[in-house]
Description:
Helices cover 36% and strands 19% of the residues. The chain has helices at residues 14-25, 44-57, 80-83, 105-114, 131-139, 168-172, 174-181, 192-195, 202-209, 214-229, 232-235, 243-250, 299-310; strands at 4-10, 30-37, 64-65, 122-126, 147-153, 187-190, 199-201, 237-239, 255-264, 275-278, 291-297. The structure holds beta-D-ribofuranose and calcium ion. The site of beta-D-ribofuranose (BDR) has 14 residues, from helix 1 and helix 6.
Amino acid sequence: MKRKKLIIDCDPGVDDALMLAYAAAHRDAFEILGVTTVSGNQDIEKVTRNALDLTSFYGMDVPVARGMGTPLVKEPQYAPETHGESGLGSCTLPLSFREAEKEPAVVFIYRTLSGLPEGEKATLVATGPLTNVAVLLRLFPEIKKKIEEILFMGGSLCGGNVTPAAEFNFYADPEAARIVLHAGIPLVMCGLDVTEQCTLTRGQILKLCQSGYPVARACGDMMGFSLENTSEKYRGETSVHDVVPLMYLLSPEIFSGTPQILDVDCSDGPARGAVLGGFRWWRNEESEANVFALTGADREKFQESLISALYNET
Length: 314
Ligand code: BDR
Ligand code: CA
């Protein structure tokens, strides 16, 4: 099978960490050209350290490039209550001896994509604020022809998790999200509509924590922190948002979605970061849609696919 070429842009982050474990477990399906980092769940130094440590821990031999340390317009917003002071909950990983690339993430992505053979493209998977992707598209608009599609975790058609209106990644950098939404590239939005259905239960997390497999145990520790330190503990389960775009690439039959015509609120009002728009079948043509938004998932199949990947030691 020909592997899908991917660049992963992330802000690890406990669910980003599980997403990287899922990518590592599926190296037969995904060729990871690089992992880039962006300020989000924690500051850029911490998420870059985490990306280096995680990729080494998972045995992934991929370049890691440090990305934008601030959103396009506003100051950064971090999420220590969900991801801890380090970004990986209370999990301590072995320190990687590898270093980040010398060039910034945006230049790394540009160089990697433009180096692909004539006619070849790669897919971008973004699981943090869209700052790097927006800067890439603004600085090097000609690179669009080398991007197959962009799958991003962010946004929501049904209310937010940071404010009543906005999801974290869109709230952190709505101006960047707007640039990406209007880029004219095929987009798959994996927003809260779908990711809140994609959970691990307290029992599943405890089982991971007790595993003899180091990757499964570390992922259990990280998710356990998120579960117990947020209001998710009342639900008894916690979402693993960032795994959704990768699992959708691998097993689209687990998910459902609809074409949408979407924008994002970039005002300073209470709806900052909220997704705007929609799709009215009696008014809109499918050709007008700028996004395919995932809205449904088979929760049990999601859990099966994720848990079996975390036990897949390399
Ligand atoms: C998103 O925000 C971050 O906290 C998670 O890593 C995920 O990307 C969920 O809203
Ligand atoms: Ca993330």
